[in-house]
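User: Predict the complex.
Assistant: Input components as received:
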Amino acid sequence: MRALVQAVVSGMTTGSVYAVMTVGMTLIYGTLRTLNMAHGSMVMIGGYVAWVLFDSLGWGPIPGMVAAAIVAFAFGVLIQQVAVRPLIGRRGVDFEMTAFISTFAVTIVLSNLALQIFGARNKAVPPVIHGRFHLLEGVSVGWHSVVMAAIAIGTLVALGIFLSKTRYGLAISAVAQQLDAARLMGIPAHRIYNVTMGVSSALAAIAGVLLASVFFVSPNSGDLPLLKALIVAIFGGLGSVRGTILAAYIIGLAEALVSLYFGVKWSLPVLFLSIMVVMLVRPTGLLGKPEEARL
Amino acid sequence: MLEVRNLRAAYGETRVLEGVDLSVRGGELVVVIGPNGHGKTTLLRTISGLVPATGGEITFDGERIDGDPPERIAMSGLVHIPQGDLPFVDMSVEENLVLGAFPRGAWRARRERLERVYSIFPPLAERRTHRARTLSGGERRMLALGRGLMRDAKLLMVDEPSLGLAPVIVNEVYRHIEQIVAAGMTLLLVEENFSHVQTFDARVLLLESGRIVREGSVADLLADQIVMATYLGT
């Protein structure tokens, strides 16, 4: 029982971080109808920004997170302008596939740049807060996990308000749902793509700082998050923000429970197997809808 | 207000507009009629920039707009209510309307405009929190018109407001269009035939095979036996 509670708590924390890490992937798919394979690199960049500020200026993870979000926003816009926008609207070219390859190339460039600049050694970022507390008799939870979950959930709530209440947030959903109608209302499609890439990258970077204090930062530290984000986004239904958040918690919990009952080595295989089954039954994911390519 | 000269457009190899000339003056109601598949929708989509023109010129409010992206043309005061209404199906009625006020000036006045649209279309006020997906065909048409009224229009282009609606609802929609015309709006309307606009003081253009083949007042066309036989079946 104690172990179960422990696993559920850790699953919810992981799920919250997965949600922040992945929701940008689904936002980009919603507006651009392509997978951003550079998404994992934003997790890595977030980690490095937090580490640099900690290492050279002694900044803690919270201000580091704000800085990471700003830097990643700029990177997101840059990637959109350099690697994605030139591919939009080309005759006879499949945008989804070319953008997929082009953003994957960006990932390789960024990983190698990080390797050149920072070297291959892992960098450590300190946790936001030390210490543990007793949730129940025999169940102790690190304060850091609580803070991580709180920051992640706060970020998701802020995203929800941005998407449903602000001019540009609503415009992102408008472009995702009906591009022609959105443009006829004067919503500038390319600026919305920039904002979407910027916001999504900032979210990935926030997740990156949260993860950096648990794992390490290295040139490859975006690879596993990219894989996980792909799994979560496809499982939840590409383009569906709710579906993605739901999927993130389900997968976070499933990972924790599989690790508890079968051992850590089984968590990824079981995950892949269950995703394959879900895809066979519901090819569009939990809350996804079939979409047509359009750019 | 709007000047179209020798406009050509195509989907790939298929030519749809083969040199269309038309002009709309301020305060005027112009109706383009013609059979389905002869380029009416494409004409509006080319004017608003959704379909690239392959030749010719479009001047709106003194500025050349052919080649501009649709969002820039929309910002200059051309409101196009597209065929099929194209609602944002997963957003509420109110969110749909508010987005109609995206241009900055309109955005500041969105609350007052929302109330105005609700007073024109009371059914939308009742369903303000419902997702657009759940609306009936008539409500969707009202939503599309309402979205267009949320920002300042110099010219309103409406694509087949009667399409797919029950006759009673069509009359209701046309009652609203009559009000919009009475308020002094410049309107370019597309319809398959002119049975709905017979009572309007309108200039009618007949579009066939991508060209304007006939032009005149409603009275002129009503007097034309061939046009009447083709388009009203009398």
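Chain B is about 35% helix and 25% strand.
Let me know if you want any component modeled separately.
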